Amino acid sequence: MHFNYSSFINIKFFGTYKVNIDKEDDKTPNFRNTLSDSDKRLLAFAFFVSLLEHDLELDKKVIIFDDPMSSFDSERRRKTIHLITDIACKETNGKQKSIVPRQKIILTHEDRFAKELQRLIPNTCTLKIEEYVDGGQKRSKIVHADFAKDFPDNDISNRIEKIK
After folding, report:
1. 1, CA 20 to 30 Å: which among 37, 44, 58, 163?
2. pTM higher than 0.85, yes or no?
């Protein structure tokens, strides 16, 4: 399931709720002339999370979040981190049962976001892309990350070590 705010033309949720977007009328509020790009991304993310929270087959799915933090303010970032870590479908046929995704993959380049995820989900597998040169060719590979070393609390000390 991929969700992109730029694909908002006509959205129908659960076969009932239809959201129409009028791209031509500048005189009335609509997605194009009212919401910022950040608001559009946040709304798309909220719709995506809502779909996940109502998906009775969530346990059969792998969910990928590709840098969901871009352009969010600190409060939206904090709430988003908690939404991502707690995603589950909480109801099945009137019974309270939590269905969680088979796997969550969260991609980010933001250290603060990665640190907060590690704090909230401590037993996760953390990977990183490591670049190297092989025969004059720049290459990369995915390797396990040493979280304390790769995302240090003291960034200045880490930069000095890299320079050495």
Report:
1. 37
2. no
